[in-house]
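With this grant's support, the team has encoded backbone shapes as discrete tokens. A representative record is reproduced below.
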Amino acid sequence: MTEIKYITIEEAINKKPQTVNLRGWVYRERKSNKFVFIVLRDESDIIQCVISKSKNAELFEKAEKLTIESSVKVSGELKEDDRAPSGFEVSVTEMEIVQIANPFPITEHQSPELLYDNRHLWIRSRKLNAVLKVRHTVVGAIHQFFRSRGYYEFDAPIFQPSQSEGGATLFEVKYFEDVMYLSQTWQLYAEAGIFSLGKIYNMGPTFRAEKSKTSRHLAEFWMAEMEAAWMTLDELTEVAKDEIRFIVQEVLKHNKKELEILERDVKLLEHYAEAEYPTIKYAEALEILNNKYQMNVPWGKDLRTMEEAKIAEHFKVPVIVTHYPTEIMGFYKPPSEENPKEALCFDALAPEGYCEIIGGSQRSLLVDDMKKRLEADGEDPGNYEWYFALRNYGSVPHSGYGLGVERVVQWMCGLDNIKDAIPFPRTMIRKSP
């Protein structure tokens, strides 16, 4: 017996009129006394399938039993039809029902909480399918970008003995008879890695116990980080700009269909892919906010989402903001020699209200200053002796940053909520499924 060769719906559409063998799930179904119409979906696309009672009464009777998300294998003639969802239709001549699905719990009446409660099923939706394909491109682009520039992939532990981004956002976990913390960043270990490999990058899960319910925060997310020996802040910000631009270009290259499904403004993305991105200092950002938009932001205050959004809206492209106040920055972000009140750090802000997508800095070489700042935050500098020791054995200027993968995916896809940029979101109020 000849084995049936199945192809994807996308492959079938690309080959155009022919006899096709497809398999997938019932995305939509509509029945009358003469026809059963099925919109079949697989990982690649959707296509309308028609079963005619007059042509095959037995097949028609089988098709009448199908429910949403039932799994089937079909064979039939593919033809063009402008009325069909993808412009093609299959006249089914054979069908094997693999499984009749139970009544699907997600109907036309969808609330956000219903969708999150049923995320294990909603992940099948065309929207999330499209988002996950864009995410796949974003992640692949990050690997491609750094490897093409001579960076080595470098892994760091997820169980870490101390904080690196603020003790208030640590997840504490039992570690045998001791206590450890889930990683807030790869950075401290990366600063050890550069003395071996020079230029390194990483993609890994990151955990922040932030008690935030905003559309921009997750308790577990993925961060793409880089670190490089001999690199200063000015060089670092240019790498960040190039990476953002490259990611946008790759999404445009590989995900036009997905962007259409998501109703994303492709013209805007094309602009971001080619535009120059400005670099301004925090002080300049305050001038814009206070003089042009009368927002009255005092020096020393970190920029809130609304203020970041206004800066990015002002330039209408991603913008780099550098030299934030030292007093509100992490202990490893050094003061500028020209003005110690300013730290050698930066944030990259995305337009359209998506705000911070990258944060980074040149790294401090001032051990005494770092110890004082840790003590001021209630931390024991003794927990960082291994980190400080890096400054005693061939210390050199070095820099790095972290890119929030979900924030970039959210921006690329034009999503209202970051929870839709990851398969299974974790927040302070959602831990399942």
Q: What stands out?
A: The mean pLDDT is 95. Residues 9-99 form a domain with the OB fold (Dihydrolipoamide Acetyltransferase, E2P) fold (CATH 2.40.50.140).
